[in-house]
From TrEMBL:
SUPFAM superfamilies, per database record: Winged helix' DNA-binding domain
Entry-linked InterPro entries: ArsR-like_HTH (IPR011991), WH-like_DNA-bd_sf (IPR036388), WH_DNA-bd_sf (IPR036390)
The protein's name in its UniProt record: ArsR/SmtB family transcription factor
Length: 171
């Protein structure tokens, strides 16, 4: 049987080896990008594009809210975006252009999904106004009915919604 001193010495050696390993190991992949790697997503996009093209727009995200995980990536070429009929987007964008609707989206995304829960929030107006806003968001595809009086932001809309908000904030 080993002595206490021998066991302590062995533990100290293990701690020293672990410390050496951790301090010499590269940064984990989930670490924030270094200044040299600030545009890592952009660099990856550029590598996939033809040299003679006009470019592309890419948005991507991984989001965890209300115990749900959303991973999303979407990209379009600049030619496709410029050739599209932007007037078709007015309904989806105008549905976001109201303070109550933005508040509703934030609350639903955060887990308050029932109309009863939403009606308890101050400054949202009457029950009739609440239902009007919920209908507007549902018609534009920002919300989906998930049962009687319950709503959710569709999974495919979570990252796009947050990307729009980030773009509107200028960040």
């Amino acid at each position: 049987m080993s002595t206490v001193e021998e066991r302590l010495s062995a533990l100290e050696a293990q701690v020293a080896a672990l410390t050496e390993h951790l301090t010499s190991a590269p940064a984990p992949s989930d670490a924030p990008p270094t200044p040299e790697g600030t545009f890592w997503a952009l660099d990856g996009l550029k590598q996939r594009l033809p040299a003679d093209g006009t470019g592309a727009v890419l948005y991507t995200g991984t989001v965890r809210v209300a115990d749900q995980q959303y991973d999303w990536q979407y990209g379009r070429t600049v030619d496709d975006l410029l050739a599209a009929d932007w007037t078709e987007l007015a309904g989806a964008l105008s549905a976001l252009a109201h303070t109550v609707r933005l508040r509703l989206l934030r609350e639903v995304l955060g887990g308050r999904q029932g109309t009863g829960e939403l009606a308890e929030i101050e400054d949202l107006g009457t029950t009739g106004q609440l239902h009007h806003h919920l209908r507007q968001l549902t018609a534009a595809g920002w919300l989906r009915s998930v049962g009687r009086g319950r709503y959710a932001v569709p999974a495919e809309r979570v990252v796009p919604l947050l990307a729009i908000l980030a773009a509107a904030a200028g960040r």
